[in-house]
Specification:
Chain lengths: 111, 113
């Protein structure tokens, strides 16, 4: 069974702070995605990383895929209240487009 | 203009009842999924259909039966509901293949009492 452990589980920070969320597995994935989910909504894709060691930036968010394609990190610079939500990593394997989701990180950014 | 829509959004029912959740996507995707999100927000795949054919069937009780009448629809029927079935069920769709983006519906919060 493929497991993706995210840390931390919960994070409460003030506006302007930086943070990093980690997504770790013992399994190798073809690619890895990060989603954000807001209350009462479904997850929405933020990014897909494909190549080991790949770094992608989306405004204040920086995503990295581990060299061995087993782990990933999400770094947010100068967090804003609008960043509040549940962050989910998801590993993709096989041609069936099966997503294995991580355990989730709940982020709250306060003024 | 909702891309993936599922109904109902809320469902409260008694143990032992049978219920269905419907899902439709207008994105032209060939693959649809059902995911279950538990109270700890853990999201786990249940089923996946590609062009109406079942391609992923995780370890799910056979009380759960998906049905895909066409590529744009994937319904979930649940028989003999149990307390442990209470969760949020998400429908999603995508193009089949690696690195594809999955689009999720708003979820159906099922509460079994």
């Amino acid at each position: 069974t493929q497991l993706l452990e995210q840390s931390p589980q919960f994070l409460s920070i003030q506006e302007g702070e930086n943070l990093t969320v980690y997504c770790n597995s013992s399994s190798v994935f073809s690619s890895l995605q990060w989603y954000r989910q807001e209350p009462g909504e479904g997850p929405v894709l933020l990014v897909t990383v494909v190549t080991g060691g790949e770094v992608k930036k989306l405004k204040r968010l920086t995503f990295q895929f581990g060299d061995a394609r087993k782990d990933s990190s999400l770094h947010i610079t100068a967090a804003q209240p609008g960043d509040t939500g549940l962050y989910l990593c998801a590993g993709i394997t096989g041609t069936a487009s099966k997503l294995t989701f991580g355990t989730g990180t709940r982020l709250q950014v306060t003024l | 203009d909702t891309a993936v829509s599922q109904t109902p959004k809320y469902l409260v029912t008694q143990m032992g009842n049978d219920k269905s959740i419907k899902c439709e996507q207008n994105l032209g995707h060939d693959t649809m999924y059902w995911y279950k999100q538990d109270s700890k927000k853990f999201l786990k795949i249940m089923f996946s259909y590609n062009n109406k054919e079942l391609i992923i069937n995780e370890t799910v009780p056979n009380r759960f039966s998906p049905k895909s009448p066409d590529k744009a629809h994937l319904n979930l029927h649940i028989n003999s509901l149990e307390l442990g079935d209470s969760a949020v069920y998400f429908c999603a769709s995508s193009h089949r293949g690696l690195n594809t983006e999955a689009f999720f519906g708003q979820g159906t919060r099922l509460t079994v009492v």
